[in-house]
Amino acid sequence: MITKHLWSLHHISKTVISPKTILFLRLLGGQYSKICSNRLVCAVTAVYCIVFSCYAPVQMLMLLARSLTPTSVQSTAAVTIFLSSALTSFWYPEYFQIFQNDMAAIDIVLRGKSELDIPLTRVLLIAVVVSHVSTIVPFAINGVLEGRAEFQISKFLFVAYFVLQNGITYLMAVMVFEILWYRVRKFREHLENYLPRVCRAQDVQAATEDICKCLLLYQNILEAFKKTNVPIKIAILTATAASFFKVIAGVFELITSSSTHIKVLRIHEAVLDSVLPLTPAVLAALIQGELNRIKLFIGNLILNAKDESVHDALCDCQLYLEHRPFRYSVWRLFTVDLSLVISVINLYVTSLIAMIQFGHFYN
């Protein structure tokens, strides 16, 4: 009975929280996306996004000037992330839809059907929403009950939604990498089931052609992902840089503040701002792991290949994988893999130690 309820809950969450849901929330936050082919609808959507993208940062900066936001560093970082994401959305309005359609076509080849599921992104979105609600709602209730003159519920909700848009900006990069990782994993399973039968086939020429088709399928996956290069790289760069300053400012306020609620709020924000920007790096490492397993599997097939043509085709496939590895770098500034995670953690630890030392020095 419990299993049945859990399965129903999973099915509901899968239906409600989909890539379209995230794109819709992103659209409500002023980040443009071409939702249909109707020019009038697209024009109205573009006007709304332009107005909101101009209004939201100005309003945030005005609230910052009145000291209604937690810290100036965090607010400035949030505005930076929002503006970079909004400008990128106008420059590349259809990049995710194109990527989604290409991956759907690859799905049909691999599985016979198209299913764009994002379980990790779904869990992270729920975590972001629950974290914001659990920490912000008590603060709002206290503000209303205490009757603070500077507290206005409409402005408070606006700030909360603006901060949520930062989380959605993080999740766009996570979603693209998760979709790619899932397809590479299915591609590896497809090769493990398909290539042994191909190598045992009697028709050598047909077997060689099938091996080449598998190679083209991997190339199509990489080409589809390449279409998201510029917007995703901008998102990762701004998110990684801005989240670092947000985390450091949050930790500083956590150390200096005497309010328990502020401390809990800063812990939640620090965890989310440190985990979400680094999730694409973890997914990139998983993709590299899948490709290493593919190369190891093809190497075993090469050792057991009996026909020379099949052996040569498998060797070509192995060479192609070695010469075109998955190595995602952000304009040669840094590589998105586990080394980025380790470097950022080291930077956090070094900054925290320096902050504590300066705090003791200046009392």
TrEMBL record:
Annotated GO biological process: sensory perception of taste; signal transduction
Broad class of where this protein is predominantly found: membrane
Pfam families: 7tm_7 (PF08395)
Record carries keyword Ligase: no
Keywords noted in UniProt: Cell membrane, Membrane, Receptor, Transducer, Transmembrane, Transmembrane helix
Membrane topology recorded in Swiss-Prot or TrEMBL: Multi-pass membrane protein
GO cellular component, one term: plasma membrane
Listed transmembrane segments: 40-65, 71-92, 123-145, 157-181, 234-255, 333-358
Ribosomal protein keyword on record: no
InterPro entries: 7TM_chemorcpt
Localization of this protein: Cell membrane
Function (record text): Gustatory receptor which mediates acceptance or avoidance behavior, depending on its substrates.
Family: Belongs to the insect chemoreceptor superfamily. Gustatory receptor (GR) family.
Protein known as: Gustatory receptor
Organism lineage: Eukaryota, Metazoa, Ecdysozoa, Arthropoda, Hexapoda
This protein's encoding gene: LOC118263363
